[in-house]
Amino acid sequence: MQTLIVYALVGFGAQLVDGALGMAYGVTSTSLLLVAGINPATASASVHLAEVGTTLAAGASHWRFGNVDWKLVLRLGVPGAVGAFLGATVLSALSTEDAAPYMAGALLALGVYIMLKFTLRPPKVATARTSPHRSKFLSPLGLVAGFVDASGGGGWGPVATPALLTAGKTAPRTVIGSVDTSEFLVALAASVGFLIGLGSAVLDPWTIGGLLIGGVLAAPLAAWLVTRIPAPVLGAAVGGIIVFTNTRTILRALDVSDWATTTIYLFIAGLWVAAIAIAVSRVRSGAVPREAVVDETEERLAEEEVAAPKS
Known about the structure:
Layout: H1 2-21, H2 25-35, H3 40-64, H4 70-89, H5 100-120, H6 135-152, H7 156-167, H8 172-198, H9 205-228, H10 231-254, H11 258-285, H12 296-307
Helix pairs in contact: 1-2, 1-9, 2-3, 3-8, 3-9, 4-6, 4-8, 5-7, 5-10, 5-11, 6-7, 7-8, 10-11
């Protein structure tokens, strides 16, 4: 029972991050499982199987709060499922450690760009609630993100979310909700691939059950947070998560010393806090348009209440 509670807390924390920022469930939960002594194969397979339940709960919660563009979900998620299945069954045995630093460098650059863009000059169309992107852009993105997610132990959010946010054509809450919802298809396909490639012997029901329980409990809270955080603040926060996640990958690959790593982390943390503070200040000062701050559903209900005849 104690083991189940520990893994439930891991799943709760990972889903809270993923549901609110559109990424890092796999990275967070897999990292914590490895620290707990779970071997990499079992950790990766367990996380993806748990994600089948957590992503379903997250998708339902995001749909309830109006964060989902279903066309975006299908155009991104179906190719993502294909990539995830291929990554889990055919290429998961190949080492991706050599390519990790280069991929992390590209994602790090995207994270810095997103953080600065949403902090200093939020995109004018960043409040659009449906994505204008077509399949010719979304299909390759989903295929690559799904493959990276299954073969690298996580990466659906860190690949798909920054690519969509960088374009600056869709509201961050819609990007996050849609990416989280489409991840159900990715997790399902990856799980099938892992079961075919690894079998069921490596799976621990306590690990999977704990991650699933914690993730399901966190999903509604994370989806609610997305509807309450202004777009510039959310964009700055997402950018910081991307920077931290990929800086960690690069520093480990380069075997940087502990003191240098700590110094770099503190420097990044300072920049991240400053970026969020600037974004909050711009929202409070009115520099950001009101429609980028107020939830549309809440605004519409307020207007209906004012227009309603008094009894």
